[in-house]
Amino acid sequence: MKTALGEFIKLRRRQAGLTQEELAYKAGVGLRFIRDMEQGKESLRLDKVNQVLGLFNHEAGPVLKINTGHES
Amino acid sequence: MKTALGEFIKLRRRQAGLTQEELAYKAGVGLRFIRDMEQGKESLRLDKVNQVLGLFNHEAGPVLKINTGHES
DNA sequence: TTTGATTATACCAGAAAGGGTATAAATTTG
DNA sequence: CAAATTTATACCCTTTCTGGTATAATCAAA
Questions:
Q1: Is A4-54 CATH 3.40.640.10?
Q2: ipTM of this predicted complex?
Q3: Splitting chain B (72 residues) into consecutive groups of 10 residues, what average pLDDT does each group show?
Q4: Residues around strand C, C-beta < 7 Å
């Protein structure tokens, strides 16, 4: 699966020139967590997600859903 | 603690005239989860959070952190 | 205040996430 | 292509979240 949060982190991490391992260390989470997150795992824990987002001055918040429009 | 997600849900739920129990049922999560979320629990599971936000056409996404400015 | 409804807190059991490690696959570099 | 780095997948163990139930506290209405 592909999630907004996962894509966001993958992009920002690369822009920062970090490996998953380095990001994990900086964020204080396990390497496996970064992997799961970037790959779009849905059932992550919110506090861990926020630990990672915090490195980029972001946090998880409510955003309007895009019209996932099964375009005709 | 107070979180953006918790406050958002509490507000929207009340605007919709729903009890925590009704919201829990509609979202397909336990009542305890709604309580925890509205009270700002940090370590919720993201998929459950999204189940709830989905009822209001929202989802958890990366948002810029407000300058939590320890105002001088 | 009294009653009824809603919300908060505590305990238990089951399920699953997170971390670590090992290995495989993929990507990059020379 | 070969070597090295980075990323992906699988297994085990510990931790803890979630849901359910019960009870207390809070709030609203009469």
A1: no
A2: 0.92
A3: 93 96 97 97 97 97 82 52
A4: A 29-33, 36, 41, 43-45, 48; B 13-14, 19-21, 32, 35, 38-39, 45
